[in-house]
Amino acid sequence: MKFIVKFIREALGRLIILVDLITRPRKQKRSPQEQAKVEAEISHYALYQFYACPFCVKTRRALHRLNLPMQKRNAKEGSEHRAALLSGGGAVKVPCLRIQKDGQDTWMYESSEIIKFLEQKFA
Prior knowledge:
By secondary structure, the chain is an alpha+beta fold. The protein is built from five helices and four strands; from the N terminus they run ααβαβαββα. It has helices spanning 2-23, 32-42, 54-65, 80-89, 111-122; strands at residues 45-49, 71-74, 96-101, 104-109. The radius of gyration is 15 Å and the shape is flat. The mean pLDDT is 90.
């Protein structure tokens, strides 16, 4: 039974990724100077995610649309990123946006909140 559930979850995840690739939105256009400024700011951000998670796909679509080439860290079982997510954020829940600023880490969960934050800051 466990194998069947895992297989269905994996198959649905791959289907979601395929639909994402086919229907991916256009990137936001910025001048080279504006884009460089955005990229400098997001160099302190990292998205903890699972590759086939629907909420992570939703968040990655927003990153693509907003033209935010952010670090993406796969929090799969056994990875160093999973351990960092658990120790820093307090839970293995994805997507999670880690913002490092002035020596402080902020961990933001929930895809809708992450997208709203990024849209307000970079749209």
